[in-house]
Amino acid sequence: MKAHPQLKMPKKSKAKNIKRRSSDEEQLPPKRSRLKHSNTASPLCFHSPVNLFQSLIQPMETEQFFREYWEKKPLHLQRSDSSTAAYYQSLFQLSDLHSLCSQGLEYYRDINVVRCINGKKKVLNKVGQVKNSVLNKNLVQDKATIQFHQPQRFKNELWRIQEKLECFFGALVGSNVYITPQESQGLPAHYDDVEVFILQLEGQKRWLLYTPTVPLATEYSVESDERIGSPTHDIVLEAGDLLYFPRGTIHQASTPTGVDHSTHLTLSTYQRMSWGDLLLDIFPSLLCDSSRNEVSLREGMPRRLLLGSSECLDTRKWLATRLRSLADKMETGMYEVRSTHMKRDFIMNRLPPCSQQQLTPSGKIPALEDMVCLRFKEHIVITVEPSQDETDEATDLVVFVLHSLKNQRKSHMMGEMNDDKVEQDISRGLKFPLSHLQALRQLQQVEQLAVAQLQLPTQEDKLSLVLALWSESLLVVV
Prior knowledge:
Strand content: 15-25%
Shape: globular
Helix content: 25-40%
Number of helices: 13
Distance between the termini: 43 Å
Largest sheet: 8 strands, antiparallel
Radius of gyration: 25 Å
Strand order of the largest sheet: 1-12-8-14-5-4-2-3
Structural class: alpha+beta
């Protein structure tokens, strides 16, 4: 992926062998020790993903947020209670960065040092590992902003929050921490291609927001002063406050005079999660299915069409007619709508469960007379795809049950994926015949189910299915 310098969100893969690229990424770091949970009381509710999001944006109601603000306009939530401010500070503070410098942080991969001067970003990164003494100099003498990438790799409470948010949104959730000294600005006015939630952790930060030049933008871009006009919002965030703004919102932020330093956390989500992205994902399989059944789609194009010199029927009219027919058949259920690459991308790259439950087969081995249920249901996706077996015969469709139980927290949102990793992730999970799809959907849709009630033709098929899921730690006997 080409990761922009503010929010390191990996690009969705277009096909199974596409590499992720990031200009900032190098080899992944060695496994690091985890920091302890904070003892500060949490104002957040972790009972469910819905509860977590509701408590994050309280006193705003979730339904009102999505009706009035999501993808529409900014929202500033002021928090006056000291307990929320204390909890926010416990998520990450300047002293945490000092501690983490001993764990092999590297410039570009883990840390960017930046300062906005005359509307331009200046990068002050060194080469190699980050030294605490140098970062102190950057903050005090250079008045530079320290941008720390993906702190959920090190902070358990952020892992806990972001894992629940990924369940809530059904999309990747990344984060960055920004530490900015007083009377300084880290980045010029710009907009992002993600939905942004800002949590003010320490000090104060002044935010200027502007009307988008590209509503719901699909890429990151810096904007000139001539284009952005006057700010629509001028907000000073205090510790414990939350600020939301949609992708495409032009913004810039600085630490006011008299504030030693500001620390804020950016939670970002919904990159490449539009209807257009879904259409790009489902159309190849949809056209492939329809071509098998409709001779007109298998007929050859007019001669010399690619040379632009064919005198045959208007190509646009022909294509529009076929697309209307395809849309009608899709609407009536004649063709399945299958999202494959977006599902794979999400499940292969999201955080693993932040749970005390064992990520190994648990309890008794399921038998035909048992009641069973899926474990970690929100970490499972089911896809219908062509079989990946290399044979000379026609490709059959099969069902894949993919999960994120074996994902690595330390590499979450860190970019590039090599070919070996791609192949390893493609083989992760379980493969079943297409005849098992309905039984798998049964398990997804109910809290618990008798093995004997699975919609499969034989007792052997039923037992084989639940044993496979149990062995993968995805199922347990009630």
